[in-house]
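To whoever is on call:

I kicked off a structure prediction for a single chain this morning and the downstream step that reads the tokens threw a length-mismatch warning. I double-checked the sequence; it's 38 residues and nothing unusual in it as far as I can see. Pasting both halves so you can look.
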Amino acid sequence: MARLKASKVSSPGSTANATIAVKTVARALPIMKRAAAA
């Protein structure tokens, strides 16, 4: 039971971290493309 609770608590956190990572990469890509073009 403790493991189930831990996984339920940690999964939303990891999902949020993944979303933040995706947003960060999405923002960084255009900057990298501009730098490469320049």
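Update from on-call: the warning came from a stale cache, not from the record. Cleared it. Sanity check on the structure: The mean pLDDT is 76.
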